[in-house]
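cache lookup: miss for this entity combination. No prior model stored, computing from scratch. Input as submitted by user K.M.:
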Amino acid sequence: MELTLAIAIGILSASGVYLLLRPRTFQVIIGLSLVSYAVNLFILSMGRLRMDAAPILSGADANIADYADPVPQALVLTAIVIGFAMTALFLVVLLAARGLSGSDHVDGKGD
Amino acid sequence: MTGMNHIAILPILIPMAAMVFNLLVGDGRSNRRIIGINIGFSVLLLLVSILLLTVLAQSSTAAAAVYPLGNWPVPFGIVLVADRLAAVMVLTTSILSLAALIFASARWHSRGTNFFPLFHALVMGLNGAFLTGDLFNLFVFFELLLAASYGLALHGGGRNRVRAAMHYIVINLVASFLFLIGVALIYGTTGTLNMADIARAVPNIAADDLGLFEAGVAVLGIAFLIKAGSWPLHFWLPNTYSSAAPPVAALFAIMTKVGFYAILRLWTLVFANQTGPELVFGQNVLFVLGIATVAYGSVGALSSKALDRLASYLILVSAGTLLLAVAYNVPGVTTGALYYVVVATLAAGALFLLKDVIDQVLPAEAQILAVSLEFYGDEEDVIDEDQEVSRSFPAAATLLGWCFAIAAIVMAGLPPLSGFLSKFAMLSAAFGAANAPTAATWWLTGALIVSGLFVLIAMVRNGINIFWTSLPDDGGLSLRPLEIGPIMVLLALCVLMAVFAGPALSYFADTAAFIHAPQNYIDLVLPKGDAS
């Protein structure tokens, strides 16, 4: 389980970083999305991996050891929302740059 | 004390109210009354910031306004902490934002849509970042100020702006992901996000986890260094700042200081309880990066012919100076650095605004000359001697010249103005510290003095190009009071900081003493005797 998650995070971030360094804006935005998935999984893993455990405490005499850590899950939610909004905003800027320069190169140059 | 604690949230609520107001009334950029109300919100923010600072300055040195949001108990809820450091930064933000807003209301606000809501959102994010006592909340406020700054960097449109803003957005999104990784690692090893609680938990981290924790802090540090404009993570900065609209660039002058603030706050807080080699984690790296940033900024300032590019490189120089001061980690040096951060921010903001006014009065051919100077260098101009003698300076040009001269003296750190006093305070504290002078002291001295010389040369050359060779001879210069007024106020504040250097420095000395004794902060935020 840990190994699977670690490999997934590694592959996502490696592909993301590779795409980020590419010269086309579309590749950059896909790279940003992949890195953000990797980061979200990473935050989740920081709450320790637990199977079949609820994050919300119920009942007065509940044992905390039976539950998953809710904080990373809340953080991931925030991070997903912010990352999504920023990607959308970047998409608009990307289209504006494409329209103004007539090229999808990050520096607005022709090939 | 209860009433005072509520002041801590007002610097966030007022810009938010202004933002909501602007969204409700719609795009009212041609309506003078709406512009007036916007300026009113900024004035209100300034008054609250002054109140916060005076209340803190009059109470004991260890006082701070602590505001738990929603009254949740502290390690679990988010807490706002307005201590002296935060109050100074909030006040600087308020002054700069009011000046930039008044300047923008002359004509820049109408160059694009939604200037006012974005502007207030940026101020809200800045104030929130300075006030929060929670690491993840810091991330949220960072994102808020960045999202607003993306919109503002694009304000006015045009190919150059869009290209610079695109680079700026990508690098800051990557920085945000690094921020998240750092926060996650710190949470994973300490189990808390409250800054004071992290500071308390650090000495108890298991030896196996310590490496992981330090990796998290280092990743977080990279995110802050990108924001602070440290070499080699600064390449986005000169392009973005010089292509942004002038009032926006003026407000951006304080954005690099958010990175400095975050490093100062976290490093002094988190690592002070440690002993041995981890006493100040990454101190040497920060110091070397500071030297490199100062060097790069100075050379960049020398190489730039246009005033806005020069101002961007001056931002780099001040960012490097502040990094050096943080890495030096002596209360006296921090005192000087805090004085420097206020003065350098105000002067840099004034310089960005001044550049716009100069652009308006310069004849078009002079601007082309400035561009061609970049490529071909100076050409010899033989001026008839009679013409030179009889030449009279129009009053408006004299005013601009004085503003430029004051900004230059402050930025270069020449006596008698505040830039010199701040550098002198840093150096005298560095030499007065125990077992000084070390090699680091000499590096700090060299960096401060040589960068001052480089900045002075760059500013003098720029001033000669603008005021002695390019300004038109006729008295047809007209300045808008709304534009020259804020510049003069900002520069007057720099002069006043020098006149009232005694009270200012004693306040900053108290602030530095508070920051370097982190147990004060921990005791303020966390209820005593509570072990979680």
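stored under new cache key. Chain A touches chain B at residues 20, 25, 28, 32, 35-36, 39, 42-43, 46-47, 71-72, 75, 78-79, 82-83, 85-86, 89-90, 93-94, 96-97, 100-101, 106-108 (CB under 8 Å).
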